[in-house]
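User: My instructor asked us to take a sequence, write out its structure as tokens, and then describe one feature of it. I'm not sure where to start. Here is the sequence I was given:
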Amino acid sequence: MKKISVKTGARTQFVDITADLSRALKELGVRDGILTVFVPHTTAGVTINENADPDVQTDMAKALDKAVPWRAEYNHAEGNSAAHVKASMMGASVQVLVEDGHLMLGTWQGIYFCEFDGPRTRQVWVS
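Assistant: Let's start with the prediction itself. The structure tokens for your sequence are:
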């Protein structure tokens, strides 16, 4: 297993970690199989989406904020319920096929760490 540190600078931020995962893959010595990417946080997640146009991540953040506003009648005393809901919507893990030492992603795909309660320094676990 490999741990990757991700530093975020905003409450909501999508960080492209594809290159970090490719490096981790090489360090782990995986040639063929499945790479599991896991986020051990309850207010952050991981997703695979387009990495060609940064407006996609901006639009995703806007859509999530509209669907799950930061201020609403939540009961959680910590005040970050929206972050918990968004993290659950994105999910805590993704799996990617690996062939000949390369992530098998589509032409426009990238893997994103999804921050919903930042800024923070987070961990991504890779196996």
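For the description part of your assignment, you could build on this observation: Helices lie at 18-28, 55-67, 81-90. Try explaining in your own words what that tells you about the chain.
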